[in-house]
Amino acid sequence: MKNGYTNGDVWSFEGHHQALPPPDAPSHVVLGLDGGTTSTVCVCIPLQHLHLHPHSDPPPLLARAVAGCSNHNSVGEAAARETLEQVMAEALSKSGSNRSAVRAVCLGVSGVNHPTDQEMILSWLRPIFPSHVKLYVQNDSVAALASGTMGKLHGCVLIAGTGCISYGITEDGREARAAGAGPVLGDWGSGYGIAAQALTAIIRAQDGRGPQTMLTNSILNTLDLSSADELIGWTYADRSWARIAALVPEVVSCAEAGDQIANKILVDAVQELALSVKAVVQRLSLCGEDGNGSFPIVMVGGVLEANKRWDIGKEVISCIHKNFPGACPIRPKVEPAVGAALLAWNFLTKESKGNCYS
């Protein structure tokens, strides 16, 4: 196939399942996938349970599979396509099911920023699944929002992991997003953005353009490097976004230890993240006409997880509440892949009801 894509034998397990179906194999399932810059997760959920217990918290998982990056902007189209197919095949294999049992698939993938991105990924999926399978492709922020609202699309979500994005949607379907354009275009509240600024601070300190910082010894020791000069080679040897973002804990540790440079990097990141939420909320008027209305704000991503003293997520919420006192922070009880599966079921249900009345 074009772009060097090959899928190998990822579906070879189906011949065995068809010959010897497990006695407890589910009759119908939905797949939910959360594809990020660091990893990709796919879950398989029984459709019958969603019909009988639509508001259960959380729904049971038949299987869960994990693979690498599936953001085509980061690893290229061929690698992203292979990762997506691999992780879906693994989830179905673990569940004892196969593609014929699938009723709907929802992919929430980072890097899906335009209808052309959606269509590209749909073109990858159509040859994989039987024609009866409903296929949905969204940005990963949509799945993340659904993970906090248990499938209901209303409110705002802030994702801050390797990358960052704010996304919101109203009950009547109006959408808005801010940030999420990648590190080159200024996602400085992201894990990559935080770590990249720390690396820059080290180089500036080394050549005299900036003050000395604890970041130098902390990060050089972590990377087993002996000098800031070696840091240049390390940085450009592999430009993977996740590799750079993995240094965020060192920045937090230095800030907690009193380093002013590290502290400023985190303060700036908090402001950037809060600003992206503010932009979305204002564009959609999620806070109501008086600015005090209640709306959910789902918080997702490793950057927002609590630390000992320098809690980025807590600081972001504090900034948001200054502008929108009615914002209701939600830490999801389920992962975004489950949110994607709930979306698959919701979309499927709406289509079925629509067909009944058409």
From TrEMBL:
InterPro entries: ATPase_BadF (IPR002731), ATPase_NBD (IPR043129), Euk-type_GlcNAc_Kinase (IPR052519)
EC identifiers of the protein: 2.7.1.59
Native species: Vitis rotundifolia
Annotated GO MF terms: N-acetylglucosamine kinase activity
Pfam families (UniProt xref): BcrAD_BadFG (PF01869)
Protein name in the entry: N-acetyl-D-glucosamine kinase
Similarity comment: Belongs to the eukaryotic-type N-acetylglucosamine kinase family.
Coiled coil stretches, renumbered: none
Lineage, broadest ranks: Eukaryota, Viridiplantae, Streptophyta, Embryophyta, Tracheophyta
The ATPase BadF/BadG/BcrA/BcrD type domain, residue ranges: 31-344
